[in-house]
Amino acid sequence: MMRSMFSAISGLKAHQAMMDVIGNNIANVNTPGYKTARITFKDVFSQTLRGATGPQEGRGGTNPQQIGLGVSVASIDNLFTNGSSQRTDNPLDLSISGNGFFVVGDNSGRYFTRAGNFGLDSSGNLVNSSGYLVLGWQADVDGNYDTATEPAALNLFNKLTLGAMPTTNITMGGNLDAGTPDTSPDNEISYNVSIYDSLGNEHILTLHFTRTGSNTWDVSLTTNDSSITSTFPAAVTFTFDANGKLTDTDTVATDGIMTLPITGITYNNGAATQDITISFPIDNFTMFAGDTTAKAVDKDGYAAGTLESFTIDQYGKVVGTYSNGGRQLLGVLAIADFANEGGLQKIGDNLFIDTNNSGNPEIGQAGGRGLGVINPGTLEMSNVDLSQEFTNMIIAQRGFQANSRIITAADELLQELVNMKR
């Protein structure tokens, strides 16, 4: 009777632990990145009343006779199935589709989380909701980074200013009006194009298209900018065929692009000497009757700019957008994976730490080496299944009740023994 009572007590304790696990799961049903826990039981040592015997002397063998001594908790496992994604459209809300954990840290060490509700602190550090620094690799001024090095805190204010880039290439496109006369003074069409020097100063150049014949135009370049001290090359002749297609110039190109090279542009403002190539793709520069639409369809170069916003792509690259329209890689988020993610230990704040049974973290960039990709503007929600948890709650409740009845029955039997003395 005492054995049954103690077995039932172990059953009460085990089912109480089951209720504790279920209660914590339900409490975290709306916690971003929370991973549901599952409890399993095992029987404890069994008392052997009689051992097994083998067949002998014409008699069959017998099985062992044992009485179990109760139940205990076998394991409490974290289930790392992906939770559903909730769209927030916040650029700093991130979720991982597939394997991996975000890496965060402080002076005490580094930790791992699936909760990607990040933000910025006053210093521009990318942090999680508890202030832990999000780790990754800072990009240099050329956009280079090395994932083979240890990840460090990502600071998005380390490139608040994007330096100026001088103009080196201008691509023209559009149409020259075939109705333009070929005699002065109405045979010239002008177009202003802006360029930037190495200091980010803007300058205006004027392209002159002067019709000199039925199918020929001279293209020249001038400027009224007093800071430009160099002279420009002589005019280049463009020739169009009967179909209005650019066919020949003084500069011969083999790739279908006519060019007007400008070398050695000098300034009196301290900017570096500059070379610019103005390109005219023959398939995109025509002479038809109608409006003149010749313009710069593409060009590089920009003034210095300040950081206005940033985006994070599926590979964890943080790209800044600047007031001058330029873009620059600021850094890359680190993603970690483990040989046995079930071996990770929860420490609160939606964080895990690695243990001897999880293996060392394999840290890399999202989308590489079996790691998942990042979904910006979304949060991974808890993977708790409420219907399953409520079902487990009923099972735990009934198990608790059944074990309590064993204690009640054992108590009644003991009471009967006491009453036998009367």
Automatic annotation (TrEMBL):
GO terms for cellular component: bacterial-type flagellum basal body; bacterial-type flagellum hook; cytosol. Residues 376-420 form the Flagellar basal-body/hook protein C-terminal domain. SUPFAM superfamilies: Flagellar hook protein flgE (SSF117143). This is Flagellar hook protein FlgE. Keywords: Bacterial flagellum, Cell projection, Cilium, Flagellum. It comes from Calorimonas adulescens. Residues 7-35 form the Flagellar basal body rod protein N-terminal domain. It is found in: Bacterial flagellum basal body. Residues 182-302 form the Flagellar hook protein FlgE D2 domain.
